[in-house]
Specification:
The chain has two helices and six strands, in the order E-H-E-E-H-E-E-E. A hairpin with a 6-residue loop joins strand 2 and strand 3. The N and C termini lie far apart (42 Å). The strands form two sheets. A four-stranded antiparallel β-sheet has the order 2-3-1-6. Strands 4-5 form a two-stranded antiparallel sheet. By secondary structure, the chain is of the alpha+beta class. Helix content is 21%, strand content 34%. It has one domain: 2-Layer Sandwich (Alpha-Beta Plaits).
Length: 90
């Protein structure tokens, strides 16, 4: 099972629509979409879980896909925030 990170989703995106978009490439095993607490609208970010070969096919097909006003950024794995301090101190 691989995690797919999706960024650049329009605020009108629903879990059902996102699932339908990815299920063209395989079975979506899990979905977690960031939503605004008050409005319930999509905050532009989601994580999906799919089997390995299906996840790779979905990333290859949907990265750069136009959804709404922008383009989707679709990657394997979770986006980790950059943590400084890994380099040498001077």
């Amino acid at each position: 099972m691989l995690t797919i990170t999706v960024r650049g989703l329009p605020s009108s995106m629903t879990e059902q629509a996102l699932t339908a978009l990815f299920e063209n490439h395989g079975k979506v095993r899990g979905l977690r979409m960031a939503k605004d607490l008050f409005s319930g609208e999509c905050r532009g970010y989601a994580e999906l879980q799919m089997e390995g070969h299906e996840a790779r096919a979905a990333v290859a097909a949907l990265n750069g896909h136009g959804a709404g006003p922008g383009m989707l950024l679709v990657r394997l794995g979770r986006d980790e925030p950059h943590r400084g301090g890994r380099g040498r101190r001077r």
